[in-house]
Amino acid sequence: VHRNVVFEGGVNVRLTLSPCRYLSQVMRLNFTRESHLRRYNRLLSYNLLQEMDLLKSLLESTHSPVVFCHNDCQEGNVLLLNGRQSSDKQKLMLIDFEYSSYNYRGFDIGNHFCEWMYDYNCEEFPFFKVNAQAYPSKAQQLIFIESYLCESDQGFDNLSEEDQMRLMEDLYVEVNRFSLASHFFWGLWSIIQARLSTIKFGYLDYALARFDAYFQQKKIWANGAK
């Protein structure tokens, strides 16, 4: 999901996918269409400024290294190379690095898990479908996390089973807390796109879907559940 480049010792890295980047823009938008205005006002009723402060406080208490991330690892950006279907190790390729940047590890992995819920191959408005039940279970996440740690941490295989599980559980909490930031960021991004983009897509519907998921997952992860 990302290159294993970690900044230590208080290095200040500008994180381009921070939700704070878009919140002030969202608060200044104007919509004229009644259907857009109704959805926009519903989104504003969520008290986004207060939610941002709560989310920031949660993430500041969650350790997550800054690494170089893809930031948009969803179904349309992962390719299976031709001729690899029968290979012992199927080879996947990431494409479309337009959102790539230095970011928190938890955001990139949490964002990928969030994308399990969304299907963008839809020909009718709002041109996406959401299935909250498709969010990966803990067992599914731990399979991914174990594979990730085996690749990113050279000493992981040499640890005791107990220490391996501790690291896996820590990363499990990390990515699910940062999944809240994914919902928040793409929700804000989508509100802005509803005002600026000429692409036919239900951006405000998508923003509502992302914030609905944010509040559902917040019930679990804002309290530090495992």
From TrEMBL:
Keywords of the record: Lipid biosynthesis, Lipid metabolism, Phospholipid biosynthesis, Phospholipid metabolism
Class of the enzyme per the UniProt entry, highest EC level: transferase
Pathway in which this enzyme or protein is active: Phospholipid metabolism; phosphatidylethanolamine biosynthesis; phosphatidylethanolamine from ethanolamine: step 1/3
GO CC list: cytoplasm
Molecular function terms from GO: choline kinase activity; ethanolamine kinase activity
EC code(s) of this entry: 2.7.1.82
InterPro entries in UniProt: Kinase-like_dom_sf
GO BP terms, alphabetized: phosphatidylethanolamine biosynthetic process
The keyword Lipid metabolism belongs to this UniProt entry's keyword annotation: yes
Family: Belongs to the choline/ethanolamine kinase family.
Annotated protein name in UniProt: ethanolamine kinase
Gene: LOC104960717
